[in-house]
Design a protein that fits this description.
The protein is mostly helical and 116 residues long. The chain has one domain: 2-Layer Sandwich (Zincin-like), CATH 3.30.2010. It has four helices and three strands, in the order αβββααα. It has a three-stranded mixed beta sheet with strand order 1-3-2, covered by helices on one side. Bound molecules: zinc ion. Zinc ion binds next to helix 2.
């Protein structure tokens, strides 16, 4: 599945929409997890949907706004849980499963979506 064109113009147009969505979902899920994070950045990337730095900064691809809500939530929760577990260990997936019990199906679905 191919998605959107990698245009800077589109990125600048959609960035604030993406930021609002990301903040809303982060706030919702972090009211459950209560983790601490610092900066939240919205980026124009081809290779990934999100990332979490050692310093506790969260980054998300602006194209998240084009995804169905259940995949958005999976990406948000995945990066949030990296604040606690910087790996993909059983403990990490257990944290994810606390709010997204069907995370494995969402992860498989997300992997099929390619960014152009
Ligand atoms: Zn991860």
């Amino acid at each position: 599945m191919i998605f959107t064109k990698n245009s800077r113009k589109q990125f600048l147009k959609q960035k604030e929409t993406a930021r609002a969505l990301v903040h809303e979902r982060l706030q919702y899920f972090n009211s459950l997890y209560q983790f601490t994070f610092h900066r939240v950045s919205i980026r124009n990337q081809r290779s990934r949907w999100g990332s979490c730095s050692q310093a506790g900064n969260l980054n998300f691809n602006y194209r998240i706004i084009f995804l169905p809500g259940d995949l958005v939530d999976y990406i948000i929760v995945h990066e949030l849980c990296h604040l606690k577990e910087m790996n993909h260990s059983a403990r990490f997936w257990h944290l994810v499963a606390q709010t997204i019990p069907d995370y494995a199906a969402r992860r498989r679905y997300l992997k099929k979506i390619r960014i152009r």
